[in-house]
Amino acid sequence: MTKLTGLPEQTAQPRRAIGLRRRWIVSSILPVITILVLIAALVSIALGSNYYANASSALEAKATASTEYFNTYAMTSYDEYYRSATLYANSFEDSDRIELQFIDRDGRVEVSTRSLMVGSAPGTKDITDALSSGKVSSFHGVDPATGEKIIAASGLLKFNGRVVGVMRFVTATRNLDSQVLLTVLIILAIMAAVIFVIVISSLLLINNVVAPISAVSEAAKQISGGSYGYQIPNRYADEMGELVDNINDMSLKIGENEKLQSEFISSVSHELRTPLTAINGWGETLLADDGSDPEALRRGLNIIVKESGRLTNMVEELLDFSKMADGRFALHLEQMDLQAEFEDAVYTYREVFKQQGITLDYHSDGVYDEPITADPERLKQVFCNVLDNAAKHGGAGKRIETRLVRRGSHYIITIRDYGPGIPADDLPHVKEKFYKGGSKARGSGIGLAVCDEIIRLHNGTLAIGNAKGGGCIVTIRLPIVPHRAHHEKEKNR
Question: What is the pairing mode between strands 334-336 and 372-374?
Fold first, then answer.
């Protein structure tokens, strides 16, 4: 069954790659090739037409010059026309390329550099046009007599205003056709080379694009299949390399988050099980007790209340974290006395810590009655959480110091314990969600992450570090936002 389900996955990637190549060819390469072929065809037609037009023009120019010369100098009388024509034909220098014909008024050849044509009637348009218009006329087509492709030009012969006949120059287009064909073949060869280069370079380009895309697709498939932390070998130094780096980084972070969440679930399960076990155990004990031992009853109820409080705190942290994750975490702002709120938290915990043998000291440089705009309940949550952490992790030092001062436009609260401090490797991560590091103290691992978010929403900062002389120190900076009435009063002074 595994093999069967795996077959579509194995063939999907090549099919997608083939589809991408096909779309690239259809959308990019084929239009370019089509345009190049059209350009080659148009250039070939234009060059061919230009070759034939130039040959026809050259023949017309020769006919014009020769007829003028013959009419002016060679033909001395009407009766001497045949003799003059014969002499002129015999002395014609281009007879190897061009046939010279003298044609009478009836359209028949009287004299020709090729004796076989004498007596024939070519009957082409250039002859009739020259006789009718008196101007040099040309013809490009098939000779009716020989079936050969020719170019011909004819000029009118006159003596004393009397039409004698036509001087006609004829040349076969075989050599010209070969020249045109050779030119077209050269153009096509160049165009084929260009198309070949375009196709090869395009295929190389698309392969360079498809290969990393296939790798990215495979990575995404691996990650979606649960292989968190999967890495793509990065051999690219362009935007694709940047994409691969981002995906690799995302994969690592997903893997790390998955590990942290797994550890978090395990930790929370353990943390929940402990108070539940205590509550259940003492509940069964008290139910079975006949009430003869009031001290045992009181101790059992105290444990149940304490463990219930722990459960409540953990559930509240989980709810807060859930709100943070989906963007529902909000503040209920009002004007509050920060000093009074912090002192209440300190005095509340002082008695609790005293029972644990921990001294909680409070210091302040003065009385600060300038209110801030904040959420009292959320700030109290932060104070209690940080104080509780100081006792849990630094209680071995048996002393916790707290201080509130004003520096410029901020209130600064510090809470320091004299415990072992935070290991250097754990220090950069202590505010990350689910992170517990090497600490064996009980907790969900999200309390500080929630506190950090609360302070951030107040436009403040929460910093955690190791203090000089040992222990851990937490520094909370909150901006002072004066009450509007207070601000107006200060402004009117």
Answer: antiparallel
